[in-house]
Amino acid sequence: MDRERQSDTSDSETTDVRRINQQPGIREGRYDPNRFRLHFEKESREEVERRKKLAREKVLDQMLDKDLEVDINDIYPTEKGLEFPRRPPWNYGMNREELLKKEEKSYREYLNDLHSRNPPGSLSHFEHNLETWRQLWRVLEMSDVILLIVDIRHPVLQFPPALYHYITGELQKQVVVVLNKADLCPPPLVLAWTHYLQTQFPHLHCVCFTSHPGQPYSTVLQKKRMRKKGTCGWGHAGGPTHILKACQEITAGKVDLSSWEKKIQRDAVAMGSEGEQSEEGVDSVLVEHQSDVAMEMSSPSQELYKDGVLTLGCIGFPNVGKSSVLNSLVGRKVVSVSRTPGHTKYFQTYYLTPTVKLCDCPGLVFPSLVNKQLQILAGIYPVSQLQEPYSSVGYLCERTPFLSVLKLRHPSVEGPQHAPKGGEKEREQGPEHSWTAWDVCEAWAERRGYKTAKAARNDVYRAANSLLRLAVDGRLCLCLRPPAYNDQREQWESHPDLAEIIALQGRKEEGAGERDEEEEGESSSEPEEERDRDADDDDEDGDDEDEGFGHPAVKERKGPTSLTVNMFDVLRENECE
């Protein structure tokens, strides 16, 4: 079996590797869009059927807050050998073919060793595409400082200790972990995660970041975040200044970063009062696409800050918002963003200023022991490619107050579906009813009107995918917690640095600003089904879907809705042009 495992640099299918996000229509002589597509290990049909059966039968039990606490040593235990593939040594006497063969041989040996240490089925989904790992090698070699971007909702899933120790130990370079999407977590939890990571890794620089300060989701079905005056656009992202300060501390005056500081200020000024960006006030950014031959035969530079230039390497798991962080640093949209994992397909370099440049590479997944259902909820595995989404829905519902958020009614309850009011709430949700993951999907399909084409039955598969996308987007938010967080909650809720996190998130004091939100958004008394009836959440692969950029928000219609939907109203403004 081990001898049959491939490095997955060819297009031939194997029995144990599944290729994700296959792109059709490869043109000869042009860039191959499938070269860096995700390669994950296949699951057996028996395992898929077993989980599907379990989703129908297992009654959901609400987990305690303590069960949401996760230790990074449980995700990446040292005794399991959860390393990542390294670039083998080489010299200029080798030609390109010899180098590639040596890398493929080294990668096969890495996979064999990894699988020999871990029994089948124990490892999480992780990247099997050697081409993507090659991109990581190039970025680590070229960069002076590494920006490791993670999702604040579950940072320990996306922070491999082996990578940190390799960068700070063997490469003698600094790591800045960017805790992205900070607006999706309560401020005390953001502080707790920052403290936990700095305690575990003393030389680590932690920076909180959000591309949406002050733009919460008002409802679970809202497709885009609420827009507030003066808070939209790349120039208003919370965190670029913090990344600059971390780099100033690391470089210690060896690189002149004043031009970067001025650029951040100019980008903020260039944003209009309504969040519209003026092209006149924004600096142009040079984008360079690295050729494969140049990267393959490049030697790692031992000299930091060569020619007085700071090179930042941006790496991270899929769907952590890496492209959005890069767009915020650049000051304009240069990388399309999507909730589809593996959206960035190739190595790119962006020159922010004459003394600062960014290297971006495709997101990749490191091997770990994390639960595969949790991987899916973290957006690491594409929801659209799932064979069995129901167990992940069950995992989510056991750890979130899904009944109160989704306003579901048990499938066994007779009668038409409508929003519960007052005393009907308890009766319709039915505390006496036991819920399975399948029941949740069926109830959500009934509420959203998802039906199969032929028999017009509730489309539970589509409903399950819809719920998982809500979780990935943060509209149905699952936030993990560091060890002992619940015991120390009062300490974090009264921490002196809490005000700084609240300011970064663009939040207001408790109870403040509610009138402004009501005026700018919809009426809170309007039924949620009517407010969001046109917010179809099935086109998950479109650009700008995850982060809500590129198109202005369309004001939703008030008043009664009918069964006839004007499709031109459903489309966003620019899509009719």
Share of helical residues: 25-40%
Average pLDDT works out at 75
Order of helices and strands: EEHHHHEHEHEHHEHEHEEHHHHHHHHHHH
Class derived from helix and strand content: alpha/beta
CATH architecture of the domain at 77-216 and 233-269 and 283-366 and 487-508: 3-Layer(aba) Sandwich
Strand order of the largest sheet: 5-4-3-7-9-8-6
- End-to-end distance, in Å? 54 Å
The level 1 CATH classification of the domain at 77-216 and 233-269 and 283-366 and 487-508 is: Alpha Beta
CATH topology of the domain at 77-216 and 233-269 and 283-366 and 487-508: Rossmann fold
The total count of helices amounts to 21
**Percentage of residues in DSSP E strands:** 5-15%
Q: Outline, from the CA principal axes? A: globular
Largest sheet, in brief, is: 7 strands, mixed
Radius of gyration: 24 Å
Could you name the CATH homologous superfamily of the domain at 77-216 and 233-269 and 283-366 and 487-508?
P-loop containing nucleotide triphosphate hydrolases
Function: Possible regulatory or functional link with the histocompatibility cluster.
Protein name: Guanine nucleotide-binding protein-like 1
Region (Disordered): 1-33, 413-434, 506-577
Domain CP-type G: 133-367
